[in-house]
Every structure is written in C-alpha cells, then in structure tokens.
Amino acid sequence: MKKEPTLRERALKLLARREHSRTELARKLKAHVVPEDDLEALLDDLAGRKQLSDERYAESRAHALSRKFGAARIAQELRAKGLDKGLAQRAVETARSTEVERARAVWLRKFRSPPDSREERARQMRFLQSRGFSFDAIRAVVRGADED
C-alpha cells in the first residue's frame, strides 16, 4: 500500500518545480491538510529556511512575463497571485526601464508591418494596450513603425 505524502513533502515537491508565492502554495496545499497539520507553521518554516520567498517568486514571475507583457499587466498578474502591491511594483521596475524595446519586440512578432490605415493603427495600439504596455511605449512603437 502506497503511503500518502506529508504536507511538507507536497510543499517541497511543488517548490522544486518552480517558485510559488506564499498565498499560492497555501491554496494548493489547503486541500491536503489533515487535522494534525499546521499549514501556517509549515509555511513559516519554509520561509525561514529560504525555500519559500515572495520576493524571489516576484522576480522570477516578472522576468517570465516580461517577454510578452508590459509593466502594468505584470504588476496585475503578481497581485492576482497574492503578492502585496509594493512587492509587485518593485518587481516590475526593471520591466519599466525596457518597456519600449519589449513592446517593439511583441509588436514585431504580431504585426511585422506598419499600419496602413487609422483603423489598423488603432487595432495595433489596442493589442499592445491589452498586453499592459504604457501609452508612451505604445505610441513610440507605432510611431516608429510609421516612420520606417
């Protein structure tokens, strides 16, 4: 008969795959808590041993999302995973500094040619806006495409 893994084993298995926020890990483990388990104590212990870190998760996730999204969308995604607003903002600071270049890369992958009408220009701008890029970055990318 196969032994059921302990809560700590489950947590370590999840953390071995990728970084998790404290809130996200707690949500995933909650279904497996038995009366003798103390989920909060486990999470505190993992954080104390540096195996669980919201800061590390925020940096990792922001980096992964920065290939496709702008700073606003990255911050929103991090807050949705249970990180506080300040931590999310700190994690996206580097994304802000490269936002125009990243928006241009996303735009090139999607469109490859400058807009030929007002409607097409608006469509391209809406696409970049839905990805969370700032208006200044969007304007710089689409204007730059018009000049090419």
List keywords for this structure.
single chain; mainly alpha
Which assembly state applies to the chains in this document? single chain
General form: elongated
Radius of gyration: 20 Å
Strand content: under 5%
Q: How many DSSP E strands?
A: 0
Span between termini? 68 Å
The biggest beta sheet reads:
none
The residue fraction in helices comes out at: 55-70%
Q: Could you name the ranges where pLDDT drops below 50 across 5 or more consecutive residues?
A: none
Order of helices and strands: HHHHHHHHHH
Q: What is the overall number of helices?
A: 10
Outline of this structure?
The chain has 148 residues and is mostly helical.
Q: What is the topology?
A:
Layout: H1 7-17, H2 22-30, H3 39-48, H4 54-65, H5 71-80, H6 85-91, H7 93-97, H8 99-110, H9 118-130, H10 135-147
Helix pairs in contact: 5-6, 8-10, 9-10
Write structural notes for this entry.
With 148 residues, the protein is mainly α. It is 69% helix and 0% strand. It is elongated and about 65 Å long.
